[in-house]
Automatic annotation (TrEMBL):
A cellular component annotation (GO) from this entry: cytosol
Originating species: Mikania micrantha
Protein name: SCP2 domain-containing protein
Gene3D superfamilies from the UniProt entry: SCP2 sterol-binding domain
Residue ranges annotated for the SCP2 domain, each copy included: 22-99
Length: 125
């Protein structure tokens, strides 16, 4: 992937490498959703770098999703995503404190299921 000044970019690269392992392939089969993660240096919505974590194909790419719409889109600041991904911030607390934004393209009754799968992904990824 292209170079980046964001701390979280290194995590995305590690995730990409993880998907080539047996554990990563098992995770891909277990989740089966596509997430777009928008990472902003300071404020959500400004100068974001976009990553797609495709858990159907088992790959991480930089740039917006090109196969239609992702199942879920999450927007974080770089610092907050890094804290969540490294276990220094609880994702549920972060959500309740509006530390990130989430949108879903699945039916309303599937949102809880999509969110649950995302937490499984965050905990194991």
């Amino acid at each position: 992937m292209a170079s980046s000044d964001l701390k979280s970019a290194a995590l995305m690269d590690q995730m990409r490498i993880h998907f080539t392992t047996d554990a990563g392939k098992a995770l891909t089969k277990k989740i089966g959703l596509v997430y777009q993660i928008n990472l902003a240096p300071k404020k959500i919505g400004f100068n974001e770098e976009i990553y797609v974590v495709d858990l159907k194909k088992g790959e991480v790419t930089k740039g917006p999703f090109e196969g239609g719409k992702p199942d879920a889109t999450f927007s974080f600041t770089d610092e907050d995503f890094f804290k969540i991904a490294t276990g220094k911030m609880n994702p549920q607390i972060a959500f309740m404190r509006y530390k990130f934004a989430a949108t879903f393209t699945v039916m309303v009754y599937d949102i809880k299921y999509c969110f649950l799968k995302c937490w499984i992904f965050c905990a194991q990824g």
